[in-house]
Write a structure and sequence with these properties.
alpha/beta, six-stranded parallel beta sheet, about 200 residues, Rossmann fold, two-stranded antiparallel sheet
C-alpha cells in the first residue's frame, strides 16, 4: 500500500492537544459521559451549555416533532460560543455545520456499561428530574425495549464505525476532532484545556 493510500482521511487530535474552539460538540455512546464533560468545558470556557436531550424530550418521555427539535436546536446555537452534547442525527447537520470542534468520547464498552449502571441507579434512587419532568424508572431500563442498556449495546459498534466516516466527509473538513479513548484521556484533555484558558 502506498503512503498516500495509508494516510488517514481525517486528523484526530490527541488528549494532549486541547481544542481552542468556540463552538464545541461532544459526542459518544450513551453513558460515556457527554453531558458531564460538556458541563466541565462550559465552566472552563464560559461557553453556554446546550443539552440536546432537554430540547428533544417533552413530558412523559415523548419526543417532540422533528421540525420542532430542529428549530429549538437552531435557536439554542445562534450564539458565537457554545458547547453542546448529544448524538442526534436529526440535528447533526445543524450542529456540525456551525461547530469548529467535535470531542468524541470513544471509550471501551465495559467502561460505558459500568458508568451507565451507576448513573441509572443514582437517578432512580434519588428520583432525579431530568428534562421536562421526566425521571428514569428501573423496571423499563431493565426489562423493556426502551432500555437504555439495550440502546447502548445496539449503538456502540455502529457509532464507532459511523463517526470516522462522518469526520472524513468534505462538509465536515473544517472540524477539529478530539478523540478521547478513556476517562483518563478526558481528564488529561480537560487539564490541558484549563491550562490554555488560564494563560
Amino acid at each position: 500500500m502506498s503512503s498516500e493510500m495509508s494516510r488517514p482521511l481525517f486528523q484526530l487530535k490527541s488528549a494532549s492537544q486541547p481544542a481552542g474552539g468556540r463552538r464545541i460538540a461532544v459526542v459518544g455512546t450513551t453513558g460515556s459521559g457527554k453531558t458531564t464533560l460538556a458541563c466541565h468545558v462550559s465552566r472552563l470556557t464560559g461557553c453556554p451549555h446546550v443539552e440536546l436531550d432537554a430540547l428533544h424530550w417533552a413530558a412523559n418521555w415523548t419526543p417532540v416533532p422533528d421540525d420542532v427539535f430542529r428549530e429549538r436546536t437552531r435557536r439554542a446555537l445562534r450564539g458565537d460560543r457554545w458547547v453542546v452534547d448529544g448524538n442526534y442525527s436529526k440535528v447533526r447537520d445543524i450542529i456540525w455545520a456551525r461547530a469548529d470542534t467535535v470531542v468524541w468520547l470513544d471509550y471501551a464498552l465495559p467502561v460505558i456499561m459500568g458508568r451507565l449502571v451507576w448513573r441509572t441507579l443514582r437517578r432512580v434512587i434519588k428520583q432525579e428530574e431530568l428534562w421536562n419532568g421526566n425521571r428514569e424508572r428501573l423496571w423499563p431500563q431493565l426489562f423493556s425495549r426502551d432500555s437504555i442498556f439495550l440502546w447502548a449495546l445496539q449503538t456502540y459498534r455502529r457509532r464507532r464505525r459511523e463517526y470516522p466516516f462522518l469526520f472524513s466527509r468534505p462538509e465536515y473538513a473544517h472540524l477539529t476532532v478530539v478523540h478521547l479513548r478513556s476517562p483518563q484521556a478526558a481528564r488529561d484533555w480537560l487539564s490541558s484545556l484549563a491550562e490554555v484558558m488560564t494563560r
